[in-house]
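Q: I'm teaching a short session on how sequence maps to structure, and I want students to see two examples side by side rather than one. Could you give me a first protein with its sequence written out and its structure tokens following it? Keep the formatting plain so it prints cleanly on a handout.
A: Of course. Example one:
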Amino acid sequence: MTYVRQYAKDKVKALDEILKEAGLSEDECAYIGDDLADVSVMQRVELAVAVADAVIEAKQAAHYVTRLPGGRGAVREVCEIILKAQGRWEELIERFSAN
């Protein structure tokens, strides 16, 4: 991953920094959160995701709530959804099953 901001105290500021560095807009971003501090960012991005064990406020702000809890496969679940939506999932299956 190119852009990671762990333990950011101001998550909106971190989002703005990443958008600027990457040359992207909010409508090109997905965000996965689980707590109150994530809600402000979730309200700005195109795809807001809450993990299954997130606080209710994060779930309410989310476009999608994962089946799996945080730390137990939720990010992989979201990556698979995005890759399938982009039509890239089969390409990966072929790549990893080719001998």
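Q: Perfect. Now a second example for contrast.
A: Example two:
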Amino acid sequence: MARTPTILLVDDDPEVGRLLGRALRDQDPTFVLECFETARDGERAIAEEPPDCIVLDYRLPDDSGIDCLRRVRRSRPDVPVVMLTGADSAEIAVEAMKLGASDYVVKHGRYLKTVVAKVREALGRRHLARARSRDEADARPREAAPSSEPTAGEPSLAGILGESPVLRAALRLAERAARSNVPVLLQGESGTGKELFARAVHDRSARARAAFLAQNCAALPEALLEGELFGHVRGAFTGADRDRRGLFEAASGGTLFLDEISETTPAIQAKLLRVLQEGEVRPLGATVARRVDVRIVSAANVDLEAAVRDGRFRQDLFYRLRVLPIRIPPLRERDGDVRRLALHFARVCAEKEGVPVPELASEVLDAFERYAWPGNVRELQNEVHRLVLCGEPGEPIGLDSVSPPIAATLARVAEEDRPLKAIVRDIEVTMIVDRLREHGYNREATARSLGITREALWAKMNKLGLEVGRRGPLAPRDGEPDEE
């Protein structure tokens, strides 16, 4: 027999408990609602008998809801928490999501219906997560003891490779995002894998069986992007001979990924804001809006906060999109991941091209780790793919095969690694030869210009291995210069 779902409400307003209880029972008569007016009483009840879901108000008489949330997530990390916030509390919502709240609801209008919907979604995700854990446990070989260490090179989340601390932090936020239904904003440089993160969030969410659709907002002009996102009805414009669903309707029930959202125009931004606020779209030429249930994951490779300050992006839309922000680190910050990714791409590219997996020489991998990778993971993948195609069968790939930018980096590093003695010697040789030329190879005039005696110049030239003949310098002599 199924267990009766228990919802625990922590809110100091008894009227909220009465109305929420009625709304929950209207949806499902089996729901049980327990109400507490202080953080202390609520936490005591949670410790004694953990509920299936917690609804937590931000303002409580004895403590902050955020502090209460932090303690609850530590003691009961598996119980979903829906946070209630004030009308002007976007920053509080962001903080709550970072601390692990599964969702948030702003207290205005008919918000109790939204609370019920969020509670049902949270319960559904928890049930799905438990079922998935049981399936994974059943699929694990009985005789093999589970390892606490990840397998080297194994994807850690939906194909995302890496063990660096900065990447692991981003992956933890992505896991939290997958357990919620709030908008996610991915921020990172081009080539860092923002769409891969968006797919990971979708695939690990309760929406995984529905559609995942993606649109690059910079790829289309405003008129075409508007039709692509919101659709149109027959007769909306010349050539519109039939109704066409937009991406919001096509992705309903699933996830829509909006890449380079910073490139949208003010008109598109206004329409996006309405979708996020009201959950409805109005196709071009339509007179009636249509309800949609779609999770928005957006991405930007520019500083959106700066765009807001400059008036290029709507502030209200920015806060709606950035409920749960995730910064995806550039490859140069991911210590140790470059080597792991290079070996992985070598295997993948070799299988794709139908050739043996090449050996990347250790000098090549060292060079990869020194290079800054301005194009990030995408640039590394393209470089390895080129090396796989250009390599000789059975021969290791060496430094002579790397692309010019990487070779140039190695040359700079080699120069920086030279000992001070060698650098000083080169400077002295260059200066003496230049002055000799300037004074017609007259050693006495050259010595005066350098502020030393003729004998000191001669000794210095001997030490550096420089010889001057009648027709000019023959420098340096074969062999090593005299040591001090």
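Q: What should students look for in example two?
A: Point them to this: The chain has four domains: 6-132, 165-329, 332-417, 421-474. Also worth mentioning: Residues 111-139 form the longest helix (29 residues).
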